[in-house]
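Lab meeting, item 3. Inverse folding demo.
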């Protein structure tokens, strides 16, 4: 079916990176090795878990009125059961976002029922997908099946999330783009591990005025140092020297070499890659309650909103037909991310009720409380306030 298509380069960026030369720091960086850096692992977890935990709502819009369509089949797919494999909606969205952040691309196969509605979303591993394009135009996808055979799918049959795309067809992950910075962080981490393995401090020299006449003495000294004094478990043990030997260290400590400061800088670098405040990577060095609150707001506005918009538009393009796309809206509900403390929350509710924006029962539903009789009435105090202003002005 797609035999006349030009095949794009294989979509396995990790394989290409692992086969290519290491980074300048000597570290091979791909989606697996990068997660060994705690800051990268934390950044991926923060973003993917935040998106996966958000409910997806479907709205029907008539003129300027939007009505929630709770029984819509898209809500069932994205909030309850995306497929028949026993996967929860949370796990599905989590794996999808992790793949997009780590690999730059995330794929899910869309299957339809007899009426043409999507009824199943099945995750596809990026390594099993080849993008088919012709003259920078997306034509479809080829996927590797578990049987070893290949299946050709139309672009309408694949949900494809892209991160930082240059051509609108294929995405790039922060790990691919900033691999040198991640390689530096991995090198610093390995350097510290080797220091501890070798006894925390770097190597020194042994000095003596005597000469070793017995070669066995040298071998015995090496074996003693390796077996009894190397590694953190042997730190602090007494070192017995013979032949008038004296130990003289020749290297600086980790603190003197500012190794710890360099390790902290790698956390800030990773935060920049994923547009996160260091607070979200568990770095509370300069944290206060005030800047944590502002960081939380920036997280939604500057980090999550572009990501959610990207995902929402792909959901709409692939899960809705042209007929329903104009009046059907798929949207993440981000209200819980803005949920303030109880005092601030009830102040907002009070203003909303007094100004007729919300009814008491709508507030109670927001707090997971049952409705009360008469609670669906909206306050008219804003009308009375407007009339009193006009009367006073006249």
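The presenter then showed the designed sequence:
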């Amino acid at each position: 079916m797609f035999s006349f298509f030009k095949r794009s380069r294989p979509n396995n960026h990790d394989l290409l990176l692992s086969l290519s030369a290491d980074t300048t720091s000597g570290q091979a960086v791909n989606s697996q090795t990068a997660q060994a850096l705690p800051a990268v692992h934390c950044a991926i977890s923060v973003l993917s878990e935040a998106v996966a935990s958000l409910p997806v709502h479907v709205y029907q819009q008539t003129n300027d009125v939007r009505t929630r369509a709770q029984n819509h089949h898209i809500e069932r797919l994205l909030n309850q059961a995306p497929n028949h494999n026993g996967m929860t909606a949370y796990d599905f969205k989590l794996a999808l976002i992790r793949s997009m952040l780590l690999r730059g691309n995330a794929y899910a196969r869309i299957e339809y029922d007899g009426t043409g509605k999507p009824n199943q979303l099945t995750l596809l591993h990026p390594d099993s997908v080849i993008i088919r394009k012709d003259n920078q135009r997306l034509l479809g996808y080829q996927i590797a099946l578990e049987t070893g055979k290949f299946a050709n799918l139309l672009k309408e049959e694949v949900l494809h999330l892209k991160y930082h795309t240059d051509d609108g067809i294929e995405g790039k992950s922060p790990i691919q783009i900033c691999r040198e910075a991640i390689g530096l962080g991995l090198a610093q981490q390995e350097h510290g591990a080797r220091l501890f393995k070798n006894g925390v401090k770097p190597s020194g020299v042994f000095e003596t005025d005597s000469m070793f006449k017995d070669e066995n003495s040298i071998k015995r000294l090496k074996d003693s140092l390796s077996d009894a004094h190397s590694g953190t478990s042997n730190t602090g043990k007494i070192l017995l020297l013979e032949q008038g030997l004296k130990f003289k260290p020749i290297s600086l400590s980790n603190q003197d070499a500012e190794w710890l400061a360099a390790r902290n800088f790698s956390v800030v670098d990773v935060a920049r890659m994923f547009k996160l405040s260091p607070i979200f990577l568990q770095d509370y060095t300069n944290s206060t309650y005030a800047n944590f609150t502002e960081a939380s707001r920036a997280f939604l506005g500057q980090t999550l909103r572009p990501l959610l918009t990207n995902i929402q538009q792909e959901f709409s393009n692939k899960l809705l037909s042209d007929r329903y796309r104009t009046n059907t809206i798929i949207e993440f509900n981000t209200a819980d991310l803005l949920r303030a403390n109880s005092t601030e929350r009830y102040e907002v509710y009070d203003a909303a009720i007094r100004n007729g924006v919300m009814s008491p029962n709508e507030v109670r539903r927001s707090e997971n409380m049952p409705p009360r009789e008469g609670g669906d009435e909206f306050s008219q105090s804003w009308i009375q306030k407007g009339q009193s202003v006009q009367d006073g002005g006249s």
